Amino acid sequence: MLRLFGAVLVLFSCTALGWGKSMTLQKRLDQLREIEKIVHLLLGEITYRKETLPEALVRTSQKTVPPFDEFLQEVSRQASLFQGECFSKIFKETAQHCLGNSALKRKDLEVFVQLGEYLGWMDITLQKNTIALYLEQLKQEIQSLEKELPGRKKMCQSLGVMAGIFLTILCL
User: Fold this and answer.
1) What is the pLDDT of residue 46?
2) How much is the pLDDT for 1?
3) Residues with Cβ < 8 Å from 162, sequence gap 6 or more?
4) Is 159 within 8 Å of 7 (Cβ atoms)?
5) CB within 8 A of 24, min separation 6: which ones?
6) Exposed/middle/buried for residue 132 (C-beta within 10 Å: 0-12, 13-18, 19+)
7) Are 76 and 58 in contact (CB under 8 A)?
8) What confidence tier does 117 reach under pLDDT thresholds 50, 70, 90?
9) Fewest 10 Å CB contacts: which of 32, 58, 127, 144?
10) Mean pLDDT throughout 136-151?
11) By the 8 A CB rule, do 131 and 43 touch?
């Protein structure tokens, strides 16, 4: 009876691991879409409202979800202090601190941090062009992920169940 109970626990645990991994894949897609929304909002704040970058970041943070709202508020707060650090350094350090535990891959964060290197020190036209280029790259990444996500999610879920069955058979 105890072996059967252990086998059921192993099966459910492995299944839960597979489902957890598939949920992480979905969360990455959701976070990339949130970044796309953030960049569109920032573009509007900078180009149409003619806001300074710290003000634009605060206004944008009010329309985003965690962990991005905290990230934008912290970048804005540090940029407003004028302690002699360049904006790109503030953006990078805050991104690593606030977004390091997100579902984003390291490559996603590196590309996002590169956007921060070009914000705040160029004129509005160059910032618009840089943001447009980043948005194009981001859209391509999102489209690619949307195409492969259903198959990858199903694979993770199936592998979780199959690993549970395999381990259950081994243990019995």
Assistant:
1) 85
2) 83
3) none
4) no
5) 103
6) exposed
7) yes
8) confident
9) 144
10) 96
11) yes
Task: Report the pLDDT value the prediction gives residue 143, as an integer from 0 to 100.
Answer: 97
Q: Report how far residue 93's alpha carbon sits from residue 110's, in angstroms, rounded to the nearest whole number.
A: 11
**C-alpha to C-alpha distance for 49 and 172, rounded to whole angstroms:** 67
pTM of the model: 0.88
126's CB contacts (< 8 A; 6+ apart) are 118
Q: Token match 């259950």: residue?
A: 168
Query: Cα torsion at 136, 21, 153, 36 (round to 10°)?
Result: -20
Element (H, E) at 75: helix 68-81
DSSP letter at 103 equals S
**How many whole angstroms separate alpha carbon 35 and alpha carbon 11?**
37
**Nearest to 118, CA basis, from 37, 41, 46, 28:** 46
